[in-house]
Design goal:
The protein has 340 residues and is an alpha/beta fold. The chain has one domain: TIM Barrel. 36% of the residues lie in helices and 18% in strands. The chain has an eight-stranded parallel barrel, surrounded by six helices. It has a three-stranded antiparallel sheet with strand order 7-11-10, covered by helices on one side. Helix 1 runs parallel beside helix 2 and helix 1 runs parallel beside helix 10.
Amino acid sequence: MKNIGFLSFGHWNPSPQSGTRSASDALLQSIELAVAAEELGADGAYFRVHHFARQLGSPFPLLAACGARTSRIELGTAVIDMRYENPLYMAEDAGAADLIAGGRLQLGISRGSPEQVIDGYRYFGYAPPEGQDDAAMARQKTETFLEVLRGEGFAEPNPRPMFPNPLGRLRVEPHSEGLRERIWWGSATNATAEWAAKLGMNLQSSTLKFDETGEPFHVQQAKQIRAYRDAWTAAGHAREPRVSVSRSIFALVDDRDRMYFGRNGESQDQIGMIDENTRAIFGRSFAAEPDRLIDELKGDEAIAEADTLLLTVPNQLGVDYNAHVIEAILTHVAPGLGWR
């Protein structure tokens, strides 16, 4: 059995060929797709966060709206770039959205990926302290965020407040109990996966990873997951961790599927440079008739290691078609792999 959800980047473009021609379209259709996915029996609705782009940005209004329209499905991010965040204000937003959703948030956070602008976090008012780079800044903010989510008081109360205070130091409000254990770290390396395990975060491993061994993507990703679990065990955490991977998977069951994705059947891993010093490997896409798709997915070591699979969806093709993509996997592929 696996948790199966979708991951949307929330692209929008004013082109006549786009089903999401405005930010409003992208946001409102994201909510409708979460509702549709829940009705189909999917387990999660996840959203990517990008700044300075025609994509989904600030996630918490969207997550809260999805939470108000659904009752069961997990609602998450994959991922929020911590370089852009104020950890305390983020804890307030996250607590409020999680309470609206009834404790269903699953927040993926990370250092982030290459952005649309150079050092975009500086425009948001953040810069690494002297002696740190942006990755260290993101990890430091993450540790602050995790500490605040514990819900313990740390702020000295005003002796003459406008409204009465509880006794002792004050915490960020609203506090949502249990959210601390539903934070995931989006990791591109084995080392950061192990770091996330030590801090008690779940692991999100996406379709991009630093190429650390030259092996196929799914093999490197599976090794990363095993290293993460070993570090989790060594840290002595009481609960079981969760691990997700994301994949572009399309079951070709009708003429629309074949028109959109029928030429992607020979997709392979791709190698690219994130920056001048960092070689990355990108996971392949899968598009085939259901029987063939089942056979291909059986060989993916990382999917086998993970408990959660996020299906990246082409959101600009509209809610109805994306619901069809999700339903096709749940109906025609997941049972053949023992996921349902």
